[in-house]
Amino acid sequence: MSKIKVMSIFGTRPEAIKMAPLVKELEKCEAIDSKVCVTAQHREMLDQVLDLFGVKPDYDLDIMKERQSLSGITTRVVKGLEEIFEKEKPDLVLVHGDTTTTFAGSLAAFYQKIKVGHVEAGLRTGDKYFPYPEEMNRKLTGAITDLHFAPTKGSKKNLLNEGVENTDIFVTGNTVIDAMKTTVENEYKFETDELNKLDYDNKKVIMITAHRRENWGEGIENICKAIKQIVEDNKDVEVVYLVHLNPVVRDVVYKYLENIDRVHLLPPLDTKETHNLMNKSYMIMTDSGGLQEEAPHLGKPVLVLRNVTERPEAVEAGTVRLLGTNFNNIVDNAEVLINNAKLYKKMSNAINPYGDGKASERIVQAILNKFGIQNVVLEEFN
């Protein structure tokens, strides 16, 4: 029997982190001919992850441009994949999550009548502009998808409510938990020396990321003002803000927080550095989606600097609080966690609802079942 040709497509660092363990699992399967195409929607940050996990792309569209627009990314991905699909003729294209690469990759596959598998399918906020453009990227990709790999039962429920057939949905857990099995080390020494100098035992180190489009402008300004206030009010707090390279974000952050005592402004770290900084930190403040899944796995409370989240499971479990970008809301909630040991313990001990480290295995087994290579009863993540 001929092999199933599966092409994995991704283009940003978060996608690469979550797709790398799946790519490795696909490569191990004798029934699958695994191909990888990166779009390089993010160039440098993507390459760091590829190097870390030893993933060698078969194709690299290298589409990134300075101050690139969403329409520009979309058209370059669709056009670039057209020739690759015509040459490779994959049986299945795998895309991940909610990036513009995800939507454009699924659209390009649809144009060639190639089946699409959506990893991390079914996350929804119900507001097409929050997060922007990710909410619609997910929904539009879902409309094209043939195999929906939902990380949680809640995600599956969202898909069922939209009319997706139950037999086309597989609850797998999130592949980021698979990735973290190989990246987190208890005795880790940072390559970024400034991080080695922090006193993680006697100081409360808060790791911060905030860069989303919907927070540009007033949102980022409020976050920065709140960080300054938190540091001034709490002498035992050190802040590490991983500042996105985009000038729209970077310029605002440096305007408010440069040269503030106990605030460390660093560029984005590679994946291993980031995961280990999380592991050593007291808590996380972020507008990222992925960190809402990663931090609970490490027992770290998360304050989400967004008005809505497509990951409600951690909020329900009690390990995540949704704050938005109101100055007083951020300061008040952060200071409660800093000073209330009982609440901190409750949040840090909450159960992570996102995975058990076996998501990639489940996805591969689901693919083999769907293409008739095997017929086994799949054990879904619960």
Automatic annotation (TrEMBL):
Classification via NCBIfam families: wecB (TIGR00236)
Record EC number:
5.1.3.14
Give GO terms: molecular function aspect only.
UDP-N-acetylglucosamine 2-epimerase activity
Q: Which family does it belong to?
A: Belongs to the UDP-N-acetylglucosamine 2-epimerase family.
Every UDP-N-acetylglucosamine 2-epimerase domain range: 24-367
State the organism of origin.
Answer: Oceanirhabdus seepicola
> What lineage is on file?
Bacteria, Bacillati, Bacillota, Clostridia, Eubacteriales
* Protein's UniProt name: UDP-N-acetylglucosamine 2-epimerase (non-hydrolyzing)
**Record keywords, A-Z:** Isomerase
Q: What highest taxon heads this organism's lineage?
A: Bacteria
